[in-house]
Amino acid sequence: MKKFQNNLQELCKAHLISITTLSNVLDILEMSTIPSDNRLKSWATFFIVTHMEEIVYTSKYKLFVHQNPDLGLDITQLFVDALRSEFGYTDQQLRSAVLPKP
């Protein structure tokens, strides 16, 4: 029975990954925490970070972060890590990029 349950979980996880879209990725990320599923969580956060511009300016994302602050922090940290590794940005360069212009 345990093997069947594990196979079913893997099948469901693979299905969720295959149907991920901009409109359902936040729901999938939230589902990855109950019970904790690192593979699904990693996939969903990766998907969000690679589609940041389309997701973070939505009211759904604002509500999501309000209801899931730890997941919002995970997304932010992954995004900053991606900027650092992909573009070699330092903290000073990141600050300069967001500093309000006079």
UniProtKB/TrEMBL annotation:
PANTHER family: (RAPE) HYPOTHETICAL PROTEIN, BTB/POZ DOMAIN CONTAINING PROTEIN, EXPRESSED-RELATED. This is (rape) hypothetical protein. It comes from Brassica napus. The lineage of its organism: Eukaryota, Viridiplantae, Streptophyta, Embryophyta, Tracheophyta.
